[in-house]
Each structure stands twice: as structure tokens, then as C-alpha cells.
Specification:
With 157 residues, the chain is mainly alpha-helical. Helices cover 80% and strands 4% of the residues.
């Protein structure tokens, strides 16, 4: 009985303290804040990996051109990151029968479609020809995989 009364008393004091001190964060909102921070950190990580991958693809493939200005290049990487986060899962869902029938190789088609969509949306990027699209897709996918695996390995250690 005593411990129950003490818990009720502590909860009453906590509620009164939170009313008087608005800087104290409610415990139910901490999970939401943590998930927002995690999403923002993932967004920043994917932005930088896509930035590096697009830079390498633009360097090695002559038919894959991005405006050499840093601001435009950052815009291309940002839009590509947003396409990968929001549109790519929808494409994977639509093309899931092809992905399953090809034992996962259909994901290259999804990656190529996202890169082609980026070429359609922005004028700062130019992909001339199907071979340039396929090579750029393979390079960008490989670099994203390598950076993601190495980051996961470093994070675990």
C-alpha cells in the first residue's frame, strides 16, 4: 500500500513539475525524437554516399555528365537521395515479380529506372545512351553497397 501511494505521489509531482517546467521532454515523445534523428542521419549518410557514387560515375563514364558546379552536383545528389528513399520502394513493389523471377537481378532494373528518372527530372545531369545508363547504374550500386557494408562493419565495432 505504501509503495502504491508513493508512486501516485511521484507521478503527481512529476506532472506538476512538467507543467511548471516546459523544457522537460515527455517520455512518450523521446521515441519519436529518436526515430526522427535516426531518419535524418540516414538521409545525410545516403546523401553523401550518393554524392560520392555520382562523382565516380561521372568521372569514369564519358556519356554520363553532371554539371561540374558544386551546388548543382549537390542538388543532383539530393534529388537522387530523395528518389531512392521515396520512389524506389514503390518501384520495387511494382517490379517485385520481375525481381523474384530473376533471383534479385531485377533490382538493377529498378536502379536504372531511378537513375533515368533523375535524368528526366533534372537538366543538370545528362545520360547519353543505354550503355552509359547501365554502367552508371552498376557503378553507383556497387559504390553504395561497398560504403554501406563498410559503415555497418565500422558501426558494429
Amino acid at each position: 500500500m505504501f509503495s502504491f501511494d508513493l508512486c501516485v505521489y511521484c507521478n503527481t509531482i512529476t506532472k506538476e513539475f512538467n507543467k511548471q517546467n516546459p523544457l522537460v521532454v515527455d517520455k512518450s515523445k523521446i521515441g519519436i525524437i529518436k526515430s526522427m534523428i535516426k531518419f535524418a542521419s540516414r538521409l545525410i549518410f545516403h546523401f553523401f554516399t550518393n554524392f560520392i557514387a555520382l562523382l565516380v560515375a561521372a568521372y569514369f563514364i564519358k556519356e554520363f555528365k553532371i554539371t561540374p558546379d558544386l551546388l548543382n552536383f549537390s542538388l543532383v545528389a539530393g534529388i537522387f537521395t530523395l528518389i531512392n528513399i521515396f520512389i524506389r520502394p514503390i518501384l520495387k513493389l511494382i517490379l517485385s515479380p520481375i525481381i523474384i523471377l530473376t533471383f534479385g537481378l531485377g533490382i538493377i532494373l529498378v536502379n536504372a529506372l531511378t537513375l533515368y528518372l533523375l535524368d528526366i527530372i533534372l537538366t543538370d545531369i545528362t545520360i547519353t545512351g543505354l550503355s552509359a545508363l547501365i554502367y552508371a547504374t552498376l557503378i553507383i550500386s556497387l559504390i553504395n553497397i561497398l560504403i554501406s557494408f563498410s559503415a555497418k562493419k565500422i558501426y558494429k565495432e
